[in-house]
Design goal:
The protein is of the alpha/beta class. The protein is built from 12 helices and 8 strands. It has one domain: Aldolase class I (TIM Barrel).
Length: 247
């Protein structure tokens, strides 16, 4: 059985002071569960969040890294910087990074490899746009993105990765893929991972669903056979996150 992983992607929300207040209010309700819980917070909140979750099993993740170790990359953060302060996870290739900051599939692959090399767990995001879904190419898109994301990643490292299927049309819109739509895409991701590594490995890799996950739909989504939890956006900033974790 794959351990469910429920990660909150806070995006550009909460100051350090607000971070401490929120984690202090919710940590006892979302720690000690059978599931892995991760808060992926803005860079300036990382130290505060790490301090706030001490004594719990909650993990702290970042929302991006640079693929190089150091250098003239103004405004960027390296994997070593994150690891040194205690960060364990990092979101890679979120659709907002792809859309607003020009991240490419090959860039996602480079960042995933760097994360793994430094001991971070990459949460690798894939997903189609509304136009692509209407054109009937959802499965083609997620298969391609997954294949490139895992290019030249060895089997042992692949098993450490988390993949998040996030249909772009469902992020922050209030629209949610039906459980059947989400399962179809997540199964396609697992199938292509099986083609690359074999089913024994693909069966170990955790695949999340992300896209307007709420307390009311989490249970149905997370009970699908190929969905191993969620990458949760806006709802992870609310007390209702407790209900999502304890679905």
């Amino acid at each position: 059985m794959r351990k469910k992983i429920i990660a909150g992607n806070w995006k550009m929300n909460y100051t350090p002071k607000e971070t401490k207040a929120f984690i202090d209010a919710i940590k006892d309700k979302v720690s000690g569960t059978p599931h892995e819980v991760v808060f992926c917070v803005p860079y300036v909140d990382l130290a505060t969040a790490l301090e706030a979750v001490k004594g719990t099993d909650i993990k702290i993740g970042a929302q991006n890294i640079h693929q190089e170790d150091k250098g003239a990359f103004t405004g960027e953060i390296s994997a070593d910087m994150l690891v040194e302060i205690g960060v364990t996870h990092v979101v890679i290739g979120h659709s907002e990074r792809r859309q607003y900051f020009g991240e490419t599939d090959l860039g996602v692959n480079a960042k995933a490899k760097k994360s793994l090399a430094k001991g971070l767990v990459p949460i690798i995001c894939v997903g189609e746009s509304l136009d692509q879904r209407k054109q009937g190419v959802t499965i083609d898109i997620v298969r391609l993105q997954t294949r490139i994301a895992f290019l030249d990643i060895p089997e042992g490292d692949a098993k450490k990765c988390v993949v998040a299927y996030e249909p772009i049309w469902a992020i922050g819109t209030g629209l949610t893929a039906s459980s059947d739509q989400a399962e179809e895409a997540c199964k396609a991701i697992r199938d292509v991972l099986g083609e690359i590594y074999g089913t024994a490995v693909s069966d170990e890799i955790r695949i999340q669903y992300g896209g307007s996950v709420t307390a009311s739909n989490a249970s149905e989504l997370f009970k699908m056979p190929d969905i191993d939890g969620g990458l949760v956006g806006g709802a992870s900033l609310k007390p209702d996150f407790e209900k999502i974790v304890n679905f």
